[in-house]
Amino acid sequence: MSDKDLGLLENVIENFHTAAKLAKKNYRNLDNYSLKLLNYSENATYLLSSTEADEKFILRINRPNYHTKEEIEGEIRWIIDLHKYSSIDVPQPLPGDTGVFVYEQVIGDLTYYSTLFTFLEGVAPDENNEEKLASQFELLGEVTAKVHVEAVKKHDEFSKVKRLTWDFDTILGEAPKWGKWQNGQLMNPERIALLEKVVKVIKEKLEYYGKSKNRFGLIHADLRLANLLVEGDKIKIIDFDDCGFGWYLQDLSSALSFIEDKPYVDYLIAAYLKGYRRHRELSKEDIEIIPTLVLLRRLQLISWLGSRDNDTTRSIGPDYSVGTDALAKGYLDKYEGVRG
Where in this chain does the record put each Aminoglycoside phosphotransferase domain (predicted)? Predict the structure, then answer.
């Protein structure tokens, strides 16, 4: 990274710090709490803690020009519903002094939105511990099936919630939410030609699969390992920032983010499905669409890695594009020209 790019990144993070300090003022009971940046990726996430109290909180500052206030309120509405009507462990949104959940901070010509959440204990799954990861994916399958049962049951109600849609058009279409995959890192004519063939097959498969009520609805959409917390025999889901409308099994493909080429992936999928089927039935067509959704997610992440500048994109981006070649060729060998 050049000194110029580093300076720009430092300015971006400094703006998040300023927004966090302003946001904290909306919670008088947190005056004595200190702010510590936990993570900067899509948004900035801060830990609020105090030497005078055991309770901790999470303050999220949303990236400007990404979600509208109405979309964030839609996310909060769904999390509150999950917290109230299910046994799923999710962070609980907390209102500020004026009773609202989403506050606005204006810095220059940029608007930042902030939300306070309860803090959940736990650690992210370890991608290098295959045995534990398989059992955790089985548990994750159970948890997400419960989320999907709730989403299907309240499909008509949730369809009115203002959230993003994650389908072919918004991921790989002409105006994708995370940018064009063609602008990913280390894209060359040969790689683009290969992935164009993959995109064509993905489009055909998804059109055939369709968006019926039992296949497409409100999902978390970003269940990568960093958004999961394990504590004992419990698995907890955090960061609903990208929740929206998509195929239910995209929650499986997103759980495989950045590890799609690991040799144990098939075992993780089998474990997830074992847990999932304890609470929700899956058809033959559901199972058959999984490889397509995995490649859809892989290309979505290539887009994201090419359109963002943070520690993750800089460390993963180039190798991720190169590593996609083998997955793409294997997918085409199996599915190109095969109907359904």
Answer: 42-282
- Span 130-335 CATH architecture: Alpha-Beta Complex (3.90)
Report helix angle 189-209 to 290-307, nearest 10: 130
Distance CA 134, CA 266 (A): 10
Asked if residue 226 lies in contact with residue 123, where contact means CB atoms within 8 angstroms, the answer is no
3-118: CATH topology is: Phosphorylase Kinase; domain 1 (3.30.200)
Render pLDDT for 183-238 as a digit per residue (tens, 0 to 9): 999 999 999 999 999 999 999 999 999 999 999 999 999 999 999 999 999 999 99
| Whole-angstrom distance, CA of residue 154 vs CA of residue 61 | 29
CB 209, CB 289: distance < 8 Å: yes
Q: Residue 297 is encoded by which pair of tokens?
A: 């997610």
pLDDT digits (tens, 9 = 90+) for 232-272: 999 999 999 999 999 999 999 999 999 999 999 999 999 99
Q: At residue 103, what are phi and psi to the nearest 5 degrees?
A: -110, 160
Report the relative pairing of strands 103-107 and 216-219 from DSSP bridges.
unpaired
Rounded to an integer, what distance in angstroms lies between the CA atom of residue 118 and that of residue 48? 10
Domain with CATH 3.30.200.20 in the chain: 3-118
Question: How far is residue 237's CA from residue 228's CA, in Å, rounded to a whole number?
Answer: 5
CA-based nearest residue to 133, from 222, 239, 282, 235 = 235
What is the spatial distance between Cα 57 and Cα 34, in angstroms, rounded to a whole number? 10
Q: What is the DSSP string of 189-252?
A: HHHHHHHHHHHHHHHHHHHHH---TTTEEEE-----GGGEEEETTEEEE---TT-EEEETTHHH
265: nearest Cα among 250, 281, 253: 253
Which H/E stretch holds residue 321?
A: helix 311-335
According to DSSP, residue 99 is labeled S
Report the alpha-carbon angle 30-33-35, nearest 5. 115
Exposed (0-12), middle (13-18) or buried (19+): which is 86, by Cβ within 10 Å? middle
Convert 252-265 to b/e letters by CB count within 10 Å (16 or more is b).
bbbbbbbebeeeee
